[in-house]
Write a structure and sequence with these properties.
The chain is mainly β. The chain contains no helices and 33 strands.
């Protein structure tokens, strides 16, 4: 797609210099944690110093290489003897480079539930990764399952004596409980209090500020008087079917195959529709975390070539486009946008939204401290997948400044008409 409006542009130019980095992020266990055996080791690695990427990730236990997994991720359970252990999670890239993270732990022997993540009374970004292990000395058959309660509501259950699952949460303070149930009817639990940071702009689907543009293939330049090739409209304030009573319907039609319609809303900056003009430029340059959280509904989603949801930020001459699309008729896969090469990149994550039902989607993005775009995770209907992709920003023409969100519907080879309802659209930033 090719867009020519400052709030939605994908105009790509020469990249400014950016520093390189390589990281190993260990989700489980956390440094200094007490855990039960077997110990769940979960880590992801990335590198911008080697264009070929990460080759493998391994675990050292007390200076001995114990386990290696090919690729940029690691998820395994290792049996360890009781006591203190020094663990190291290391990545090796295809260019001969390596980096590591050191995590000391203690393996306990007594009955209980040990939570590696999140930390009690901690502040943690969403999705919140719950990682825990359990053991029982009162039931010879062992631990049957583990679960997580959020504010007294059972949120997830995992079979066995270990748990490693993400939970998407909006900003707020939560009381969580991680519990184990054994095969003899016994149970044990560990309570936690966590805080998810962020500012929420709520129910954006019902707000003002929306502008629609048609887009014709193959260039996908935007148009407002587009003719019969692409026909589009938006209806706000509908009450059924609705979750909030303020649903918005987006309509796409026309007679040109593969034509699209883009809807955009300026949230922060010069053209803000929400009073967040940031005239002193103190908000946008300090934002590093963004979440696009919404519910969508359609009775004929199978004819949608793709449904696209984006967050854009512009400042200091840089253009950050966190473009994300669910290809439906296009192949039931999530894609992410490569800013520099101006192309969609398959994520390997499937996307199968439900017809005639509300689909909950939460997309989590970050801007790194050295100005890389990080696509963190995609949650669809309670299933979270980690994208873990880094891309560089492009340069922003002129004085473009601010943060916007987009919602786009794409036509298929017949330009079959369809509608998508959007509800409870929240944007989180911090």
């Amino acid at each position: 797609m090719k867009l020519q409006h400052p709030s939605v542009a994908f105009c790509l130019f020469v990249i400014l210099a950016s520093s390189a980095f390589a990281t190993v992020t260990v989700t489980s266990p956390t440094s200094g944690a007490t855990v039960a055996s077997p110990v769940q080791f979960v880590a992801t690695a990335s590198t911008s110093t080697c264009s070929k990427g990460v080759a493998s990730v391994g675990v050292y236990i007390d200076d001995k290489l114990t386990y290696v997994e090919n690729g940029a991720g690691l998820n395994t359970s290792l049996s360890l003897t009781p006591g203190a252990h020094q663990t190291v999670e290391e990545e090796w890239d295809y260019c001969g480079g390596a980096t590591f993270t050191t995590v000391p732990i203690t393996v306990a022997t007594q009955t209980g539930v040990w939570v590696s993540a999140p930390a009690n009374n901690g502040t943690v970004g969403s999705p919140v990764q719950f990682v825990a292990t359990a053991s029982t000395a009162t039931c010879a058959k062992g631990v049957a399952s583990m679960g997580v309660y959020i504010n007294n509501s059972l949120n997830l259950v995992s079979k066995g004596a270990s748990l490693n699952s993400p939970v998407f949460l909006l900003p707020g303070t939560y009381n969580a409980v991680v519990e184990e149930w054994d095969y003899c009817g016994g149970a044990a639990f560990t309570p936690l209090k966590i805080t998810v940071p962020g500012t929420v702009l709520a129910n954006l689907q019902a707000s003002g500020g929306w502008t629609g543009y048609g887009e014709y293939p193959p260039a996908y330049d935007i148009c407002t008087s587009c003719g019969s090739g692409v026909i589009y409209s938006m209806q706000q304030g509908l009450s059924s079917p609705s979750l909030s009573g303020q649903v918005t319907q987006f309509n796409l039609g026309g007679n040109t195959p593969y034509a699209d319609v883009l809807w955009t809303n300026p949230l922060i900056g010069n053209t803000s529709a929400h009073g967040l003009f940031d005239s002193n430029h103190t908000i946008v340059p300090n934002l590093h975390n963004f979440t696009y959280d919404a519910y969508f509904y359609g009775s004929d989603l199978q004819v949608a070539q793709a449904i696209e949801m984006d967050v854009s930020a512009y400042f200091n001459g840089l253009s950050f486009i966190w473009g994300t699309q669910c290809r439906v008729a296009g192949g039931n896969e999530w894609d992410v946008w490569d800013n520099i090469n101006a192309k969609w990149v398959p994520s390997g994550i499937s996307c199968h939204p439900n017809n005639n039902a509300w689909n909950h989607v939460a997309l989590v993005f970050q801007r790194t401290s050295d100005n890389w775009l990080y696509f963190k995770s995609i949650t669809l209907n309670g299933q979270t997948s980690y994208v873990n992709r880094y891309y560089q920003p492009s340069t922003a023409p002129g004085s473009w400044y601010g943060v916007t969100v987009n919602f786009q519907t794409d036509g298929n080879y017949q330009q079959a008409p369809y509608q998508v309802l959007l509800d409870k659209f929240n944007f989180v930033y911090w």
